[in-house]
Amino acid sequence: MARFPTTLDAAPLQLVAWDPRYAAGVADASNASFDALHTWMSWATELATEASMLTVLAHGAQRFAHDLEWQYLMTEADGTVVGGTGLRPLPDPKSLEIGYWVRTDRTQRGYATASARALTSAAFSFLATCERVEIHMDVANLKSAAVPPRVGYWLEREEDRPFLAPGHTGRGFIWVMDRATWSANS
Fold first, then answer.
1. Listed residue (186, 2, 10) closest to 98, CA to CA
2. Residue 120 located in a structural domain
3. SS3 (DSSP) at 30
4. Are 12 and 73 in contact (CB under 8 A)?
5. Distance of CA 99 to the CA centre of its chain
């Protein structure tokens, strides 16, 4: 049994663990946002199909069940998929990284912020060994960089990073939250 629940409240969203039943919705959301995703995300190299999403979501569901990483879909009240978010372990066994993307026609609604807040809380609630959560992005991804300070993260450093997507500059931000700070402010 996975350490994290398969659904998390991230009002106004519901976060739902990856499940192949959402393949069509994920394909639709990612294709509607392909230009933005392709700019920043290394995995967005071609348009998605329902068949390709079935495979990706099934693989992610297995990784979730085996506590290798915890990927969620952002869904609105009617079940519409409007993005993705998740937690993955970092090399330091006490640290996790949050990632997120929001469907282009749903930006500026606080969805990434709500998701990051819910996942930060979940990381510290469900993993007793987690002492630190990070959010990484390219320095040029200003929309993504606006999210961590809204959740209370601080910018720890800027560092070199590989060029993995067309918008990457070779420099990245590392935003940080630790358990003590989260507990004191929650």
1. 10
2. yes
3. helix
4. no
5. 3
Q: Tell whether 1 is covered by a domain.
A: no
Tokens of 120: 């930060």
Here the tokens at position 1 are 């049994």
Alpha helices in 44-178 (DSSP H): 50-65, 111-126, 142-145, 147-151
Does the residue 82 lie in any domain? yes
| CA-CA-CA-CA dihedral for 134, 139, 145, 149, to nearest 10 | 60
Q: How many domains does the chain have?
A: 1
Separation of first and last alpha carbons in the chain = 27
* pTM for the model: 0.94
Instruction: Return the structure tokens found at 146.
Output: 């606006």
Residue 70: give the domain boundaries: 7-185
Q: What is the pLDDT of residues 4-17, one digit of tens each?
A: 999 999 999 999 99
140-165 pLDDT, tens digit each:
999 999 999 999 999 999 999 999 88
Residue 110 is classified by DSSP as: S
Has residue 84 been placed in a domain?
Answer: yes
Count Cα neighbours of 104 within 13 Å in the Cβ-side half-sphere.
Answer: 12
